[in-house]
Amino acid sequence: MRKAARAIIIENGRILVMHRNKYGSKYFTLVGGRINDQETPEQGLVREVMEETGLQVTAARLVYTEDHAAPYNEQYIYVCEIAPHADVAIQESSEEGEMNRYEMNVHQPLWVALGAFGALPFRTPQLQKAIITAFKKGFPKKPVAL
Which residue stretches of 4-145 are H helix? Predict the structure, then answer.
């Protein structure tokens, strides 16, 4: 079973999302991805956020777990704090940077206003709904299975 870690990063009234154009299928998801065999979910989260955005995670709290269709059957979703930064960008040396060069499976990190998040064609609607609820009521103190 493959696992993934995803980041909820909120800053200045915006949430960081990943716009994907995967072989013509356009959608949004959270920043993050595959946890390697030798990594903990937290280590995978920190690495993936760095590769996909150039941001350094300084703190992370698990708020959701999600069963998901292949290729990632289990996802761990964290609310993250990040170090001060400049712009976000896919790192050229990452797997996503390589895919972007071939323009087949394009990744683009974007900041989106919290009020606009609900209108995005998000990959996992149950996660999107949980995040929108958390904007109003706060994120859960203990991890919730979606």
Answer: 41-53, 95-102, 125-137
